[in-house]
Model the fold of this input.
Amino acid sequence: MKNIKSTILLASVSLALSWSFQAAPTWAQVSQVKATTKAAAEKNLPLDPAVRTGKLPNGFTYYIRHNEEPKKRVTFYLANKIGSVLEDDSQRGLAHFMEHMSFNGTKHFPKNELVSYLQKSGVRFGADLNAYTSFDETVYQLPIPSDNPEILKNGIQIMRDWAQDATLDPTEIDKERGVVLEEKRLGKGAQERMQRAYLPVILNHSRYSLRLPIGTDEVLNNFKPETIKRFYHDWYRPDLQALIVVGDIDVNEMEKTVKAKFSDLKKPAVEKPRTKYTVPLTGQNQFIAITDKEMTVTVAQVFMKQPALDLHTASQYRQSIIRGLFNRMSGARYAEIMRQANPPYLQGGADLSGFLGGLDTYSVYAVAKPGELEKGFKTAWRETERIKRFGFTQTELDRAKQSFLSDMEAALKEKNKTNSDSYVNEYLQYFLKGTAAPGISFEYDLVKNDLPGIALSEVNAITKTSIKSTNRDVMLLAPEKDKATLPAEAVVNTWIKDVEAEDLKPYNDEVSKQPLLANAPAAGKITAETKDAALGTTTLTLSNGIKVVLKPTDFKDNEIVFSASAPGGTSLYSDADFESAKNASGMVESFGVGNYNPTQLEKYLSGKQLSVSPYISERTQGVSGSSTPKDLETAFELIYGYLTEPRKDADLFQGIITSSKAGLANRLNDPNAVFQDTLSAVLGNHNVRRTGPSIAKIDQISLDREYAIYKERFADASGMTFTFVGNIDIEKIKPLLEKYIASLPAKNLGEQAKDLGIHIPEGQIAKNVYKGSEPKASVDLIWSGAFEYSAAEKIQLDALKECLEIRLIERLREDESGVYSPGAFANNSKFPTQRYSIFVYFGCDPKNADKLVASTLDEINKIKTNGPAQVNIDKWRAESIRSRETAVRTNGFWLGYISGQINDKEDLHQLDTYTKDLNSVTVESVKATAQKYLSGKNYIRMQLLPEAAAAK
Ligand SMILES: [Zn+2]
Done:
């Protein structure tokens, strides 16, 4: 969901919930450096010389850098070392509330004028303009066009206003209370309830555990304007603030302006000390077990806390490389367990990463299968114990170094096309935490010099220093019905001791020496070539009938993206075969390819920058992915492999089936899952292909049928069109296309997808789902029907959606204080039939749902009767033009556009009329569009309401 104005950051805290994400280790992303001499190793690393930095006499810091990616844009960040941890008891939640108030009136932009002004300048609220508040920081971000002097001037004025000139009008404060309380309501549920219970424990009852950024209802409902003014006055001061400016600007001019604008920021007469809070290590072990009736899985997580590794000096950076290598290897070991025939848990892992309040944590976690907590926990702990006892192997380390260096090389190659946002984030961390930001060339050189000298013993030492039996917290989270069977602390400790006493075998690093493909492709030919100068594309026809569209670009130096599709998909199979067809591509991909099982494939691809995935959707099948120019041949090898040599693996199949069933066991404890299943079923007219997952559906999947369908879908590639966009050398890619694509099998069947006749039902439908204990409602309103498909009509529909959304934000949020982020979106399709749908959605207090729906319908009626306000059309047009300006400088846009137009059998030159179509939108045209598509003849209202509301 689109976040408006602000997102509360619990990022650090969410580490405790890292099992809910399968993200790469944090450290893997961090770039590192090396010491050349002992003395140099202890000095702070230099800041990237490409950034202009300085500190004004009042203590205000700035960082300014010229960067043309994207062109004609500049990103401003106002960074404040001010967060919820600085609140006193009467201010809990006001650091975040203050962030909201910065959008509700400043000296130069009273009331809501700031948001409105920016929208008129083409800046999208929520997507572009945003801010966040966490424990230790509040950050405001504003990316704006830099080619218009007036917008640029006002952008700087906004940053200056945010620094110290928020109005804090009592009336506006009262209006914003409801919005913040609604934001808080959206966060309620099982995760939040459990978090409230475990955070004090894992945060060692430190100040952080009493200062969750969202605050307390009591303060948010009752605080006096003086209380927030005191917070603002005490903390919004120049010594805790920095302006970061990166973009297509003149650095000298910008520095002059910053000096002129920010030198008069005042320090308070009495400066409160900005205490650096920490989570103190106690030397104690802790244990906490929490159950919740809406929890869907059982999780065990062990945190072993230790002082944080800062990243200021060369020797600290060297240590962070060692960590990065450790986490890569550990991650690969745990990933391999998941690829066993019958994985012993749903998910598991271990890594050493940042925590909060000056601490890092080595954490081991397992998401258990129902009733198998001991087995799952022991498996996760066993792998860490194996690493501790035997260390990693030299071949694992070699691979990890290779992939580490490859990531750095990839970043270095993109040096001149690095996005401004990425620089902004580096300087933000440099200002907030002192995290070194010496620049990619500097880092690359040092990593390259440093990696060869890192010995296996240094990486293995991490387990010796990190895995401890003190400062160790064990946390169990589970569905309520498992309460009685959850182990006590002593039992978990016994499990750990049991594993430590086991007779373990060292890890055996099996690497395949075979070629990836069992059969080398028999190259075909390019039989025709045409060029489209206006579009900048070359289209090739291959001897097997496949078409290839190539669009070379200079947007990125190290990126090629591609996709291919042909008509067919799961629409060609009966309902009885549907589950096998739907799951075929995902499962077959997870079996590996050619001669390699998935683990061998993982190792083969280590150090390469590419991804390739086959897919079978409802109406098409194909393949999609990305690569660097250097690894393009490997990407082709994989495409050919997936389409001609899929693997079949009965053991892995059984494992996936077992895990999928285990994952479903408690899924319907989650109110959102129940609501989504119902919504999907209703919108799909209860067709079996649209209803939610179930054990019975999993039982319908057959390995043989799945594999046969997969092979059948890719047996005839003649209907396929490939699109490649990026840093392509046409002459160099031709031999690869002849070898790997012109060699794909072709039968010229001319397959077409079938119309299954599934669409949103007609008429008026209202349905409530009663599930969940929190006083919160989710409302979805849907209009749908036949669509008059054309490029111009799609633009009219988009304008209607945007004008409606702008009004819903103004009315439901700003005027009625009833919601946090109402949204609207519109869909349209050309095939199998021309249809549209418009969705409006928001979360709210169940008591307000009727009133807010009535307000929504009232706004719709106003658009149908009078048309939208001209100013909202102007905002939509400015946003469309500005976002298109940057989109057309990305490879992803062109890949989506070209392949989308081909799939829809539409003209590839449709972009030429874009501006004309935009300009054809008027108050009258949107009014007519609203009358046509929001008539209410086909209207569905679905609501998720608390269980308690069902009785009433
Ligand atoms: Zn907020």
Notes: Confidence is low (pLDDT under 50) at residues 1-38.
